[in-house]
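Q: What does the assembled structure look like for these inputs?
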Amino acid sequence: MTSTAAPLTGAGERMLALASRLFPLCRSITGDGVRETLREVAGRIPLEIHEVPSGTQVLDWTVPDEWNIRDAYIATADGRRVVDFGESNLHVVSYSEPVRAEMALADLRPYLHVHAERPDWIPYRTSYYTRSWGFCLSRNQLETLEDGTYVVVIDSTLAPGSLTYGECFLPGQSEAEILLTTHVCHPSLANDNVSGIVVLTELGAALSELPRRYSYRLLFIPGTIGSVTWLARNESGLSRVIGGVVIACAGDSAPLTYKRSRRGDAAVDRAGAHVVERSGGRILDFVPWGWDERQFNSPGFDIPVGCLTRSLEGEFPEYHSSADDLDLIGAERLETALQAALEILDVLEHDRAYRNLSPKGEPQLGKRGLYRGLGGPDPGTEQLALLWVLNQSDGAHTLLDIAERSGLAFSDVRRAAAALLEAGLLAEGP
Amino acid sequence: MTSTAAPLTGAGERMLALASRLFPLCRSITGDGVRETLREVAGRIPLEIHEVPSGTQVLDWTVPDEWNIRDAYIATADGRRVVDFGESNLHVVSYSEPVRAEMALADLRPYLHVHAERPDWIPYRTSYYTRSWGFCLSRNQLETLEDGTYVVVIDSTLAPGSLTYGECFLPGQSEAEILLTTHVCHPSLANDNVSGIVVLTELGAALSELPRRYSYRLLFIPGTIGSVTWLARNESGLSRVIGGVVIACAGDSAPLTYKRSRRGDAAVDRAGAHVVERSGGRILDFVPWGWDERQFNSPGFDIPVGCLTRSLEGEFPEYHSSADDLDLIGAERLETALQAALEILDVLEHDRAYRNLSPKGEPQLGKRGLYRGLGGPDPGTEQLALLWVLNQSDGAHTLLDIAERSGLAFSDVRRAAAALLEAGLLAEGP
Amino acid sequence: MTSTAAPLTGAGERMLALASRLFPLCRSITGDGVRETLREVAGRIPLEIHEVPSGTQVLDWTVPDEWNIRDAYIATADGRRVVDFGESNLHVVSYSEPVRAEMALADLRPYLHVHAERPDWIPYRTSYYTRSWGFCLSRNQLETLEDGTYVVVIDSTLAPGSLTYGECFLPGQSEAEILLTTHVCHPSLANDNVSGIVVLTELGAALSELPRRYSYRLLFIPGTIGSVTWLARNESGLSRVIGGVVIACAGDSAPLTYKRSRRGDAAVDRAGAHVVERSGGRILDFVPWGWDERQFNSPGFDIPVGCLTRSLEGEFPEYHSSADDLDLIGAERLETALQAALEILDVLEHDRAYRNLSPKGEPQLGKRGLYRGLGGPDPGTEQLALLWVLNQSDGAHTLLDIAERSGLAFSDVRRAAAALLEAGLLAEGP
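A:
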């Protein structure tokens, strides 16, 4: 694997195109929206689809009934639709049970949700584990509703079926696995989390073409219940998992963010922090709030899974509203996030300790063509990287240790190690 | 023990009232002023009074002769008192030997002490271990003295007697003891240290009504020689003492201060830092200067005793002068200091490790009534505290560890643990 | 050894005088310029001169042929010297092979080097390990050269001979050695590094008159090849070396700098950081760039050798140019650097752990004449130092540990320990 951008040619456009196809689908934690989403992903990378029956006990949880929806609306007595699922799938509270009723506006009001701050945005609401129903609409829309009786229809089914998730396994030289996951349970919300789905898809495509030291397992799962289900079904193999990254909210305008795992200093945390810090992004400590990292980092598993995002949940004003649409995400931002993910994996793939084979004094680099001739005061990055690798390669320090201590980029340190290896001045292993 | 303010109703007023009774007494490191002080304290909490004879060898020190004073003055030849002990007990250098003489002002001058900075304040001076005598007066007063001969009288006794200290023992479930001490050797100085005496007294009253995991030993002792004496007489029991707090200067307007013990990271230090930091106060590292913590933290004992104060010794301009009077201390400040002391002890009492009984993935809080329904982006303190306790309760992290890592208040973390315990999701012990 | 300035009387002037004699010499990594330099040093301190034949294999390097130069110039066809080695030895690229030719200006240009930024400065260039030749001149000078043919002469020899270095060994009570080194390979450059040579010389003179716990070995060596050669020839004795300091660039106007060794927390690093930090200087972490510390700190040796300088290489604009002349260095700056070096060694010499012989409570200092009588709030440095030494002397903390924790100067802590030792309150050893 290299960290060059080569395998990414056109990645931004490909991701945006996939995002456009995924955006309209009405995803939830179960149902056909997830299946259609996974079919799109499977068009780009090999994906195994799993169906887990409703009622299956998974850890402390139970796989819920499957939810599907065909239509929903609020109409005036004369049949005019004033709120229409056909216009936005956010209009219906996700997992709403079927309804077919005539109601006075006053009775309907408790089932209507508006955005707390913006009068023109439709909020996004769910009620997965408590049977309920409801509509979301903009406050402006609500204010146009006149008193009177309305026809209220939610043409949904909430019945035994299955929970669906997708898994892409890319074997490497080692059985040791790295998990890469994203949640696929949100309907028409672009940044959270169509952006995560398209970046993980493209990351899988890039990884599949690279030599791999580690094995990679990409999970496209509904939030919480999806990771809980996967963990329950794969508990016996978890000892192979050395870490992972949740990818989400990758398309908005915030700088990149790496949120550490519960352990805080796992290999993936150090790689994530190194790459994101150098990109001008921010590093956050673990909190047991967020996405599926909560489940992987629970104390009974303690798998070091960090999080690569731009905004965190709730940090951008459009979060969980109709304003989180395709205009919010950009090709270049998706590409930078993808690039960061590849660089993090590049660190994990290539971090190792070397031994300086000429450890007493500095070896004479000049006679090996590794030293500049008539020199000035500033050694330059290339020269410094050679000297740092030689100085620290006593078998106890890895390339990432050296990058952290020297302040140089991992890629520069890695390049220096390659040159020294070729010159016979370095050997692998402690 | 709870950290609610309930047991403190009226505490501020009670403390001020006791302060008013204690303020006029002429305390020193021995003598009747200490005895009267301890009698006042014994009116509020059960107090055992100890008398240790002069000449007793205590560690590297010897209990000195007992000092008592009835009267003292400087008078003109015609009998007019120009400096009068009756007006302020600060006028006489503490432990002054008896004097009865006529002296020219020029000869008297070396025995007269004024405040270095303020012309209207009387300084406070002592000469415990070097036989001497002297008067303290304001510079303004000194300047009114005309040349001539003065009658100088100190009607004191300095003779074998005893050193007096008070001890209040409150047994708990465990034999492990926490020391709470204050010095009782200063005459009419309100902040240093009538304030410490009244806060410790009220703290004892509050503790006596609470269930106690630990045993508490409250010491009302003269500075230095008192703690040295107590340590010498109780050396065999010191292994039971797990830490302690010196309380002093609790009434002035400075923010709360916790000064760490020599160890710096003892349980009491972490509890003290947590509580005082969250109150907006400051945390200071140990220095071997201050009050009786110097003796407890000496290397041969190394008992982790911190210090809860507002100003430190010497930090407020009125320190050790007649301006440190009752106007300097306030009921609300005394109460806040008392509250902080109770909260520190609350942390010590309730800090322990729990085990998450559903450690794989997050348990489904919703079905146990611990999860909010239709939720927005911000989990809120209560929800976060539940998740932090679940995430960290692997038996290795205590509630205080969790509070420190999460940035939440110990009281919030403790409340979450209680809810999870009740829901059967948590068990005590590692 | 004491840290008083007494042994340094006149040191600044002596150093400046030696600098004036050393400045004109044409030093390089071998040759007579080094020999004359060492002869001057040997006039002040006992110096053993070593000659190592060209061709000797030293670690990964080979001692090069010896270079000497008598004359060099560029002259017009009519014999007018337009560039003349007699005016500045910087005019010739160090280690230039002999040349005697007539060349058109156009053909000569690739052999002419000017300063990148300043038109009036002559740069300093070398070509030790690649046979080459060249002239350095100011850009102003270059611009006056008219097209035409020039006579080019470098009357040098580059032939088997030897590499020369000087060694001054000052035995102490212990065989454990401290290395003190400076590079002697630069021609007429005052700060880098005539200043280092004169400070190390005067430091040797001062050390020779002081009692010594450790042994000291002062090395006056050509850069890189000199330390490589010394290391190769002394490998069997390196286990005696507990650390060292490279001294260089000691005369410019920058504040003092201590650059840590590769280990970062060796005794010499802690001493260097303590002294330089308190002098208002800066502390830098190790980088494998700089002077001979690169060789000592290579992983196969890992000898903790730090660096005491003012500017680092390349940090002052005059670096490696004709502007680095005697005007750049000052007697007082050289003296302050010397003083800092002596103080660092003073810390190493006197840092040790003591035991408080009265560890339970504070011993009564007053009865031993160590306590002030009628006191105010501020204990003062002397009193605090006594209390810190007593409090921390449990055998586990050395005087430097105490100085670091207390924020007091090592010299104050050391003075307190001496007073307590004399009072019978302290004993040596853990």
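The first helix of chain A runs from residue 11 to 22.
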